[in-house]
Amino acid sequence: MYLSRFLSLHALWVTVSSMMQHYPSVWGHYDVCKTQIYTEEGKVWDYMACQPEARDMIKYVKVTLDPPDITCGDPPETFCAMGNPYMCNNECDASTQELAHPPELMFDLEGRHPSTFWQSTTWKDYPKPLHVNITLSWNKTIELTDNIVITFESGRPDQMILEKSLDYGRTWQPYQYYATDCLDAFHMDPKSVRDLSQQTVLEIICTEEYSTGYMTNSKIIHFEIKDRFAFFAGPRLHNMASLYGQLDTTKKLRDFFTITDLRIRLLRPATGEIYVDEQHLARYFYAISDIRVYGRCKCNLHATGCKEENKRLLCECEHNTTGPDCGKCKKNYQGRPWSPGSYLPIPKGTANICIPSISSIGNPPKFDRIWPNISSLEVSKPNQANVCDNELLHCQNGGTCINNVRCQCPPAYTGILCEKLKCERDPGGCGQNSGQGAVAHGALVLLPALLGAAGLCSW
What we know:
4-stranded antiparallel sheet, about 15% helix, about 25% strand
């Protein structure tokens, strides 16, 4: 009896859960490049857009400091403790392991006690500025997937700029400015990511949130990747379909989250006051205990693997592509111009594989099992993938597919497949009267009734 009731309860819960499920959460992660399918001609390959898994990119970084002799300890010097800025009997000595603070300690395993950190020389040459550039290089194009996090063992700097490069350090663009006073330091009004929107997400801002001076409990600085993703994917990033669609169609947005190098420009150490105490300059220095950068190798949606070879990251290319970023077609596979893969149509995307060159065709090659279906590759229209249709890619929530290229959505919905409620953009979110709220509320109201009908509810 109890077993039958349990099974009935489980069935009801599955029903209610399916009603409440936020549909975009089922979108794939583009983790498969191809799969075999059966057709009238037999087994053939079905190709899909694919990308590597996100990982901790700090494992592969090369760090460079400018000036090169900015690390403390050579010659040895004393500095002031963070807890008591007038207790200046701490020592930095590069020749003694326990007292040295080399750059690699920015990237070692955290959680040790006492904590390990890189440290600069003190501001002994004041009023000459204490400037430090910390350059992080990967020799590979990286797509950022999570916030950049910098943990200071000193106070967070009064002035700092985070910069990025897309061309291996030849040119640099600012990512974000940080200051205790943005107007005074950089002639910019202070803003936070919360002040941005879909239309202004690429704006370079100066923030005062992370520059609160000489405080031991204020150590972390963020560059908010996920908050920017949320303008397209929703507050909890449930609607990744919308984000992928935007990345696919907006090159500037895609490039914004893409880097080859990062540069941390430290321009003024934490002072904690309006004026610098010239009698205790050993109070002022930079110290960083941890830097976190998460991302994936950029492989142009032509690979799921990325390996380290000769201290360099390389995509393990598929789709008959080659190169560090899978950025060109293999020899004898240049039957049409190379093209990156596409996230659209969701959920599999479009592989845009490289096809055999005309001169190499001859008889159908034995190595390409998809050859009998080469017409399915749409050689004459390689980039015209369907966004919607009336078979597999249905427009959701009553939307109408227009010429297979876009969904015409009802007034309350938006997104590539009308999968997102417009009210999710509002500060108050979706209330009970909106579509999503109505489904969830209705499901919760329905649950006691269903349980009661099954004899499982005693209240």
